[in-house]
Amino acid sequence: MELYDAMRSTGAVREFTDDPLPDDVLERILDNARFAPTGGNRQGVRVIVLRDKDTRSALADLGLTAARRYTAQLANGESPWNPLQPTSLDASAIEAAQVPAQMSAPFREAPVVLMFLLNLVVVAATDQNLDRIAVVPGASVYPFVWNVLLAARNEGFGGVLTTMVVAEEPLAKDLLGIPDSYAIAALVPLGKPVRQLSKLRRRPVSEFATCDRFDGAPFVG
């Protein structure tokens, strides 16, 4: 499909039909996605293709830890997992939160789940000494993830980038035999969408792009 059409219609897909995602199609998706940029072209991304239902279910269960906090904070009027706004909830309130089934269903029901890893040995984290959460290393993995979602859209499939399992990264790494030098960046279920969106809603350019300064005039072409 045309590139701009794909960019404007690649939404988050969490409900899938029973249609399979054949290996040859998945290989074609990954084969095209691999041309995403990485820092220094070091190509430190690894992908684990997860089809085993027990493994996917175990990862879905591990994601419930973060999902409980997300659900509890949302119900409490907070911004879930925000690094600048700590939660006011105690551990017992978070543990008691009931996670909606649809938050873990995609990992159990999608025909395939992809785990994206980043080799920290080869990244340049230029923000590592700043007094904030590091975001720069993501530049070497998330373009790859987005390329996978765009390629999946082109093939008539869809998915969603999730990170809930990262809260239990040590357990997830033990489960899949992942070396210490790798970080889990995302878990992405892929399959045939139950509903395919044709148009997404986003803020106009003038609301997020400014000229010359953060407080500059809105950019208008």
3D architecture notes:
This protein has 221 residues and is an alpha+beta fold. Helices cover 32% and strands 12% of the residues. The protein is built from eight helices and four strands, in the order H-H-E-H-H-H-H-E-H-E-H-E. A four-stranded antiparallel β-sheet has the order 1-2-4-3. The longest helix is centred in the C-terminal third of the chain and has 13 residues, at 142-154. The chain is globular and about 55 Å long. 26% of the residues are buried.
Give a brief description:
With 221 residues, the protein is α+β, with helices and mostly antiparallel strands.
- Unreliable spans are none
Number of helices: 8
Determine the fraction of residues in helical runs and give it as a percent range.
25-40%
Report the end-to-end length measured between terminal Cα atoms.
Answer: 26 Å
Strand order of the largest sheet: 1-2-4-3
Question: How would you classify the helix and strand content by structural class?
Answer: alpha+beta
Q: Please state the overall shape, judged from the principal axes of the Cα atoms.
A: globular
Helix-strand pattern: HHEHHHHEHEHE
Describe this protein with a few key phrases:
221 residues, alpha+beta, 4-stranded antiparallel beta sheet, 32% helix, globular, oxidoreductase, Nitroreductase-like, Nitroreductase, Nitroreductase family protein
